[in-house]
Amino acid sequence: MHKFIISGPTGSGKTELAVGIAEHLPIEIISMDSRQIYKHMDIGTAKPDPYQLISVKHHMIDIIEPSEYFNAFLYQKMAKEIEKDIIERGKIPIYVGGTGLYIDALVKGFFEGVPRDENIRKELNKLNEQEPGILRKMLEEFDPEAASRIHVQDMKRTIRALEVYLKTGKRISELQNQTVKDSEKCFTLVVLNRNREELYERINNRVDKMIEYGLIDEVKNLVSNYGTTPEAFKTIGYREIMDYLDGLYSLETAVQLIKRNSRHYARRQIIYLRRFKNAIWVDGTEGNVEENVIRLIEETFSNTPKS
Predict the structure, then answer these.
(1) In a 3-state reduction of DSSP, which class is residue 301?
(2) Is the pLDDT of residue 38 over 90?
């Protein structure tokens, strides 16, 4: 099934664009945000507001508790089932969000051609305990392309990449690229972006609104119910407020850190999205963005019934 994806850096206006499109086309949105899947994490993840949720059907939002485990493989599996259901009901599925790993999961799938080798994994974990950071250095040497895709702290994917190389003598990036060429023809990626100054201003304003709307109380309630250990709480906005509540620094400093970290995250998203050579980049400040994206959707789903 051909996938239509609207992505872009945080604060670029992806949700607003999709909701506007819903006024003209019978779309349903499949969220592509790795934090909006969690219940009770509303303000800090900038979930669609009640009006937006009423205006257009959203999926993959509020599906698990913050303490529950979730990954890109589970996302891909659930999203594909939702996509199929939407199409069967005569609607148009649109993926909206900025989580790069979820885009990879949708358009590239998962490389599973080389089975796990527990002995290799055990040795790699042991090596990393003896010399922290050595696995990252090995990955950068053996498979620079995979290293550029895998976060420095993502030990699970680092070990997987090294496991494949040690087991087969081939780079996981090469094996993955072999399966990607055909699949990448089956999606349209629209990247909503803005000039840096405007984007950063939008991010800063959104953080201020989060504080105004009650982010601190939201964090207090989450800590009260789940403690501070869930992986979900490492999200930008939550970890800084937790540190503030622990007395590590003032609220003013926490807010400035949230803004700074959000801006840095937006920059990383833009760098990631530039990897897709066929992506269609649109300027969010232009007045005809919605019209142009609607036309692209109509061309992509020309056989889908329109309302």
Answers:
(1) coil
(2) yes
Average pLDDT over residues 191-217: 97
Predicted confidence band of residue 158 (pLDDT cuts 50, 70, 90): very high
Q: 162 and 138 in contact (C-beta within 8 Å)?
A: yes
Q: Is the pLDDT of residue 302 over 50?
A: yes
User: Amino acid identity, residue 252?
Assistant: E
For residue 184, what pLDDT is reported? 52
Alpha carbons 192 and 10: distance in angstroms, whole number? 10
Provide CATH 3.40.50.300 ranges for the chain. Answer: 3-109+194-300
Give the CB-side neighbour count of residue 128, counting CA atoms within 13 A: 19
Rounded to two decimals, the pTM is: 0.78
Share of the chain above pLDDT 90, in %: 75
CA distances from 158 to 106, 124, 207, 288, 299 (A): 21, 10, 33, 42, 39
**Cα separation, 249 vs 292, whole angstroms:** 46
Residue 3's SS3 state is strand
Any alpha helices (H) in the chain, and if so which ranges?
14-22, 50-55, 72-88, 100-107, 118-130, 134-142, 144-149, 155-168, 172-183, 196-213, 215-226, 238-245, 251-273, 289-300
3-109+194-300 to CATH, choices 1.10.1130.10, 3.30.420.340, 3.90.1200.10, 3.40.50.300: 3.40.50.300
For residues 267-289, average pLDDT: 92
Residues found in the chain? 307
Distance CA 270, CA 275 (A): 9
Q: How far is it, in rounded angstroms, from Cα 49 to Cα 57? A: 12
pLDDT of residue 114: 72
